[in-house]
Every structure is written in C-alpha cells, then in structure tokens.
User: What shape does this take?
Amino acid sequence: MLHRTTNNRHCSINWAGRWSAIDLGREGSGVSTVSVSLTVNGKKVTADVEPRTLLVQLLRDNLHLTGTHVGCDTSQCGACTVHVNGDSVKSCTILAVQADGADVRTIEGLAQAGVLHAVQEAFREHHGLQCGFCTPGMVMSSADLLVKNPNPSEHEIRTWLEGNICRCTGYHNIVKAVQHAAQTLRQSAQAAE
Assistant: This one.
C-alpha cells in the first residue's frame, strides 16, 4: 500500500505485488527495463521504462505530456499533480511501475471535447494564475477537491491546496477561482437533475 500524506490530505493506493513482476535480469542494452501499461487521458499506453523511472518522467519524457511540471523534485510544490485512479497524486512521488494498470489523467486530459473543465475556466476567468508554472498542479488538485467536496469553504480550499505552492500569487484569486468552479459545477449538476 502506498500512502501519500500532504498537509492533512491522505491518498492510499494499493500497489501491492507490483515489485514481484519486475524482471531485473533482462539481457540487452545493459539497462534493465520493465513494460508498463496504463491508461492516460483515456488512451491505453505501454512503455518500457527503467524501474526507477518516476511517473512524472514517463508522462513528460516518454509520452510528451509536458503540462505536468517538475518544480522541486522533492514532493513539496505540487506542480506535478495528476489524477491516479481518480485521486490527486504528486507524480514525482510514485514510480511508473507503481502506476502499471492505473487510470491516469493529466492536465491535458481534463478538458473534454475542446471545452475547458469548470476549474480551468474559473482559473482563466478569475486570474488564478500568473506565470502559470504551478497552474496544472493547482487545477488538478482543485478538480479532485471538488469531486470529494462539491461545496468547500474558503478554509477547506486553502487547507486542500497547502501541498501546492505558487510563488507568484497570494492565493486569493486561486481560492476565488475554486469557489467559482464549485458553484458552476453545482449549478450544472442541479440543471442536469
């Protein structure tokens, strides 16, 4: 069981038994690789990676999904946040082999049919970004929050986003954007009923 704890947020993902499937004795280039298959943004993908390859490296270097950023390499900034099986996870904290068989969604897969997700639209509308480097992680974390808590208070939003660092803003517009997205998603849900 892999546990992620970031400032009062917990994420547990069962990766039990994956290590037993790694064949470290492959012949060839001298570098051991493992085949990893997962679904990324709705598409099944397979890649051969070194066992030490991080999920963020697989996404950026192998799959060329560069919206997931690497900001700190220490799991502190949250710029690399993606959804793994529906939960926000810092992709620099898990190995690609641990994501074998998982459903991964990156910032590139959040919009559907060319329409921005409510969180993306709210960040644009409420100027929830400045340089934009932290924005993918902020958006992915916020989208996960709104699935788990459709009507968060300002305090709950700020607490949830503690694991995501923005060096440009005072977080005020980010919080406003998340509040607006929450309202939009609630209204959409009510209209669909």
